[in-house]
Amino acid sequence: MKTLIAGGRVVDPANGIDRVMDLLIEDDRIAALAEKIECSGIDRTIDARKMLVCPGFVDMHVHLRDPGFEYKEDIASGTAAAVAGGFTTVACMPNTKPVADNATVVEYIIAKSRREGKANVLPVGAITKGLKGEEISEMGDMKSAGAVAFSDDGRPVMNAEVMRLAMQYASMLGLPILDHCEDLNLSQEGAMNLGATSTVLGLKGIPGAAEEVQVARDVLLAKLTGARVHICHASTRGSVDIIRWAKSLGVRVTAEACPHHFSVTDELVRELQYDTSTKVSPPLRSADDVKAVKAGLKDGTLDTIATDHAPHHKDDKDVEYTYAANGISGIETAVSLVWTKLVSDGTLSVSEAVRKLTSAPAGILGIDRGTLSPGKVADITIVDPEADIIVKPESFVSKGKNSPFGGFALRARPFVTIVSGKIQYEA
């Protein structure tokens, strides 16, 4: 099977490429990349003029809810949503039922994704057994089964000694810790960002320090152990400053930003009149925090963009704000928010944005993806940068329709998503 992608602007930051070229796929591999490809036996030609041809996007932070919460999402629906959002590879978090804290659950996720998945699925194993933060899980067994990282995502490891030991073990295995930073003594089950808006709305607030205290602790532990720690969903100015400082000391720390944390502020809770689709952990922050997150993306303090895709059933959101589940179904709006909020306003160049969605997360996870080099697996995302869209959550492929971006007018969308040489999504 030969597919020619013709006349697109090829953006491959890993190889320093940003120019109009043709790309040839043979079976599941990239066969050639040149200014003009003439080849016999082409089965399909994709006209990519005015399009961006990129390595397949990698989302290192998603929730597929499978096993145990398939009414929210499952591997089939979650990966279908991923390719609709332009992502060819996703790393799924372990807060399932049973928890992905052992080799058996990791093997189940891999086997089911091979049968039903439209995108590559990389399981993330739990740091601690049952996500309880008390006893380290069988990390070695999970790595052998296929886990690419460890995280207690959504639940912080409050005990510093447990986290120190976890970092040591993860370091011996050569895998990163994906770190949800939250001091539960400070957040105390708050519902939104602590500030003027929370006061006006009468909702219990979560101070930025609840995140920053644990970011500081864990970069110090990473400095002590030499482990690789990746800070998930950095959302405050203080967190960005701490990560920047740690990097200046040579600490092996990386970090991500989520689209909702650089696109909107906590004012959206008031504007949407307590709409629980705005409730997320960490919460939507202040305008100053948004400015700092964007600056962190621009100067490289924040290495990647990840969605923290967190689909929920309507029954989990259709309750009072305080009791609603945290999370935004974000994988289908991420690319449009990146282009609208970061590229269009000059925060990131096209190449910089693509790097944070491709080679940067692939490098952190240690996977052979994120490039268009001939001979590599043909995971490719083609983006229409000029498309205008109106977000309609009710039309999401994901089972989760919980998005605060309904009605937003955004720019750019995935046009074609190719996984291992096979078209898995076409607009």
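The record above closes out task 2.4. Task 2.5 opens with a second protein, given below.
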Amino acid sequence: MVPYGNVEWFYDTRFDDWARTLATLGAEVTLTDHFRYELYLARQADHLPEEKDLNALGVVLEWYF
């Protein structure tokens, strides 16, 4: 298992300001040499054009051949 964290900031030229922040925490789990999966939690905070928040739980399936 490999834990990870990521933060991204988004700039919007329409408003000439920072418009969004996205933070992700998760873990990648290797089952075999050919199959992995990730579970993560994400929080997106929109600042422009209006204040909105979004929370998400996600799963990514990865198959290597």
